[in-house]
Amino acid sequence: MAKSSRENEIKLAFPSPESALRKLLAAGARPLLDRAFEDNVLYDFEDGALRSSGRLLRLRLVRGSALLTLKAEIPGEHRHKLRAEHETEVRDADALREILSGLGLAPVYRYQKYRTTFRLPAVEASLDETPLGTFVELEGPPDSVDAAARRLGASNGEFIRATYRDLQERDAEVRGTVAGDLLMPRPETHDPA
Predict the structure, then answer these.
(1) Could you give the CA distance from residue 141 to residue 149 in angstroms, rounded to a whole number?
(2) Which residue of 18, 63, 128, 190 sits 20 to 30 Å from the alpha carbon of 77, by its own alpha carbon?
(3) Is residue 125 within 8 Å of 118, Cβ to Cβ?
(4) Phi and psi at residue 182, to the nearest 5°
(5) Cα–Cα–Cα angle for 26, 62, 191, nearest 5°?
(6) Which fold has domain 9-175?
(7) Where are the domains positioned within the chain?
(8) Spatial distance between the Cα atoms of 1 and 124, rounded to a whole number of angstroms
(9) What is the CB neighbour count within 10 angstroms for residue 158?
């Protein structure tokens, strides 16, 4: 099923998955999807044209499905991360990889995480366990995202609008290292990449 929309979201950092879960449940979050491993690969042209133009092309493998997503920045100043998003399920991920390669696109970045999805009033809340730490992504209408963040005890100054790739690159710069792929250290049983 294809989906096109405007994505409005923020991330909030938590010290652990357990603390994030406690806050979500105390705020009245209802489980939507159980914890699942996600393997995400970003594609771009050799010259980085997609990234330099504020676009992202991602192939996500999760729960035995493959999703292709194109995101594009929406110009202007926004208090949340705001993007145009077009997404569709892909029946044959291997064939899609060949198509992307034939168009001159290659994998440029891979990131993995465990995600558990919840519902708060008018907001989807995703508890993400990443090699960088634990985050809760809140996605929905702007005022509802703000209200959900307050229910989780966060203020506007704690809103993270960066992508996981951006966060990893900042972390690498501080450490004086090179940011490579963001992979889980020892993945549990999960969908094959």
Answers:
(1) 12
(2) 128
(3) yes
(4) -105, 90
(5) 115
(6) Hypothetical Protein Pfu-838710-001 (2.40.320)
(7) 9-175
(8) 19
(9) 13
For residue 94, give the 3-state DSSP assignment: helix
The Cα 193–Cα 186 span in angstroms is 14
- Amino acid at site 61: L
**Both tokens assigned to 2:** 């294809």
CB 62 within 8 A of CB 39: yes
Q: Which of 49, 164, 175 is nearest to 114 (CA)?
A: 164
Q: CB atoms < 10 A from the CB of 79, how many? A: 13
Residue by residue, pLDDT tens for the chain (193 residues) are 566 689 999 999 999 999 999 999 999 999 999 999 999 999 999 999 999 999 999 999 999 999 999 999 999 989 999 999 999 999 999 999 999 999 999 999 999 999 999 999 999 999 999 999 999 999 999 999 999 999 999 999 999 999 999 999 999 999 999 999 999 986 555 544 4
Phi, psi (degrees; rounded to nearest 5) at 125: -115, 120
- Side chain identity at residue 82, one-letter code: L
Nearest to 141, CA basis, from 7, 2, 3: 7
* Of 21, 190, 166, 175, nearest in space to 113 by CA: 190
Largest CA distance in the chain: 49
